[in-house]
Amino acid sequence: MRNLLNVTTTSLLVLALPIAALANLTGTPTLSANTALSLDTGATSASGGDILWSGTAITPQGKAGAFNLGAQGSTLFNSLNQSTLSAFGAAYSASPIPVATLVVNDVFAVKTNGGNYAAVLVTAVTSGGSISLQFVTFGISGGPAGPTITNVINNFGLIPAGFSNSAIAPGALIAIAGSGLADPAAQVVLSNSSAAGGIPTTLNGASVKITVNGTTTVPGIYYAIAAQLAVVVPSNTPTGSGTITVTYNGQTSAPFNVTVAQSAMGFDSYYGTGTGLGVATNALTGALYNYSNSIPPSTNVVLWGSGLGADAARDVSYVPAAFNINNLAHVYVGGVDAAILYQGASGFPGVNQVNITIPASAPTGCNVSVVGVTAGGVPTNFITLPIGTGPCSDPAFGTAGSQLTSLSGQSTVKTGFLGLYHSVSPATSGGGTQTNDFAFGSFQSTTGVSYGASGGSVSVGGGCVVTQSVGASGSSVTTTGLNAGNISVSGPNGNAALTAIPQLAGFYEAQLATGFIASSGGSYTFTGSGGTDVQAFSASLTFPNPLLTWTNQAVGATITRSAGVPVAWTGGAAGTFVVMNGSSSSGSAYGSFTCIAPVSAGQFSVPGYVTQALPAGTGSLTVSNYTNYQTFAAKGLDFGLLEGYASTQINSTYQ
Description:
4% of the residues lie in helices and 45% in strands. The protein is mainly beta. Among the domains are: 25-138, no CATH class; 394-654, no CATH class. The protein has a 15-stranded mixed beta sheet that branches. Strands 3, 4, 9, 11, 12 and 13 form a 6-stranded antiparallel beta sheet that branches. The longest helix has 8 residues, at 401-408. The protein is globular. The two termini are 29 Å apart.
């Protein structure tokens, strides 16, 4: 669900149309040995289902079939859809997928007993014999004819339930998603908060009640369509655990559980995704910042969003006078504490603004992290801003603001991506570690807007970003594979051919021999013969001597989320950067963070407000030394990028 109301100036609300994914089943189950999973229902059992985890293999059950796609990770997993999965056809079989193949980031497809298609990502395999999966099953439909609530979320932050920062607040603008919520013929028409009486409490036949600790409040409604409502939580709503119901056409939905907190701020993002490029305007001129117009340090800017806290004067009506709601103790820009000049009402019901000064010492780049934190250490969602002068620049990634603006403005972007990876991770059984060398290629035609969103990206030295999800929803980005011909990679220890995956046009992979990437580093070259869509190319990168060593791995075994985690390293090439990735899951809630620091720093402390945003549960911590990204050119591509990294991953418990 994306936000429907998007703030772009100090005086105007602009609608961004909804995307409500109501037909997919998602989940993040952990299966112990001899446990079956139904991908049609998400239920586990001792037998039956669609797949059975024996502790040594995943085996399709009944009429179900599976097809393994290799250790492609979330890049491939998020690109899969029902059309792609159904095209695999005869590739689905009843053959077991052995544990040696089911490493972290392995992706496999399943045709279920119910005739649906599922994409499955391996997120953890323990020595104790359990396996953790993330899946999305496409095409699941049905449900009652009356109103049904599937999600309640801050309209801007979009943090789903299951996280320490996923509450809603009195005075906040929230989105309620589901089906049958209002007149099915209704269109998105924004209620006028300046009209007499303000926004109504009944609209297109829909009304809402919020009940907390025995007190029921009735919110005003900005718009009401069958799939989604936008409402403002009344400021007299008590805090605590409660429920929300929607009534339409004489029928009332089942109660949906919510948590109401004093403050639960969500910042607005430019593309309405809750992450990536944030909405920030100049405090004096109202000009909107973007990749081509980055923010100079020491500039006063306005951040927009909702959820600072109660504001009874603006529950339903526009009231222009300022009103302080001082519930954020900090706003960090690239990890640097920014001066907060004002936080409170914007005038519109449910819409807040936070005025800050970009610190003079803030890092520069196209995706510098921005997050607000309460006195209790609870963070907002994480957005990014372009900091610098004129078009932003991230030379380590080979990108610049003018390029991002140009690509995001195109209807489609043809890109090539090549990667060479050396990873050390926990062994799937028997304890110890396993080492894998892997080459990957992806050549795709992709919708341009995905290049502007930049969700999950952060500039070097630009702080940390966090992503939070419940289950997996698949990707809304449209991609088409490009034929790049035959691709190979050569280095000091030999040559290897990447194999094109027949069922996934544009994807190439190679499991390399152990030691292909030497501990002493060296130069490696990808060569492409050229195909029907992409012509011949050559691209090279260099691994350092020695490869980076993570020197304090033991601190990551158990992480106290409120305290953060320090990371230290030696080695790596001068001028490169170190990426710290952490993730954890609890039930269906999955969270991950990314922090990037220059290798010369030798250490980095992941802040407590970052790890606090992950759910308490099991997961991992990974430290990687990336080569600086290299660009390459080939006729048929708008942009080509090459990366390499050496990484070490450990299992972690987040408590």
